[in-house]
């Protein structure tokens, strides 16, 4: 598995340059790449997948994207070799563990794909 707390690096880092790494900025860079005379499809795909990571697979409560395995996006042909289900599950379980430790606080923030919890609950209720 990879370290989800790495700094921005690799191809994504070079495409995003010095921009603040938030979803809105990534989408704006995608739009500018699509409007260019020569469209680098690989970079558009990398950034689109980055948005999917940030919004669907590894969402956080922060606006800044900092928990994504950026170097994984360097070779988009290898993305299918990773166990994304395990990665999403592990990230969600760690988030639940942090939330459990914060039970005494007034507010608990849950990171991770809570949709997975909703789907699991719906599937469980369908059978019982």
Tell me what you see in this structure:
The chain is mainly α. The protein folds into 2 domains: 10-81, no CATH class; 84-127, no CATH class. Helix content is 54%, strand content 0%. The protein is built from 5 helices and no strands. It has helices at 10-16, 23-35, 41-57, 84-101, 114-127. Helix 2 (23-35) runs antiparallel to helix 3 (41-57). It is elongated, with a radius of gyration of 17 Å.
Average pLDDT value?
Answer: 78
Order of helices and strands: HHHHH
Class based on secondary structure composition and strand pairing: mainly alpha
**Helical proportion, percent range:** 40-55%
- Low-pLDDT ranges: 1-6
Output the radius of gyration: 17 Å
Q: How many beta-strand runs?
A: 0
Largest sheet: none
Q: Output the number of helix runs.
A: 5
Q: Determine the strand fraction and express it as a percent band.
A: under 5%
Total separate domains: 2
Question: Could you give a quick summary of the protein structure above?
Answer:
The chain is an all-alpha fold and 128 residues long. The chain folds into two domains: 10-81, no CATH class; 84-127, no CATH class. It has helices at 10-16, 23-35, 41-57, 84-101, 114-127.
């Amino acid at each position: 598995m990879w370290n989800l707390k790495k700094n921005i690096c690799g191809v994504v880092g070079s495409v995003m340059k010095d921009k603040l790494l938030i979803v809105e900025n990534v989408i704006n860079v995608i739009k500018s790449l699509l409007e260019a005379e020569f469209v680098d499809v690989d970079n558009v795909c990398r950034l689109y997948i980055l948005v999917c990571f940030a919004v669907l697979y590894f969402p956080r409560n922060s606006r800044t994207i900092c928990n994504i395995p950026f170097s994984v996006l360097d070779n988009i042909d290898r993305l299918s070799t990773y166990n994304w289900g395990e990665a999403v599950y592990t990230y969600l379980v760690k988030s639940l563990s942090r939330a459990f430790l914060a039970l005494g606080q007034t507010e608990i923030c849950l990171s991770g794909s809570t949709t997975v919890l909703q789907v699991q609950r719906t599937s469980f209720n369908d059978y019982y």
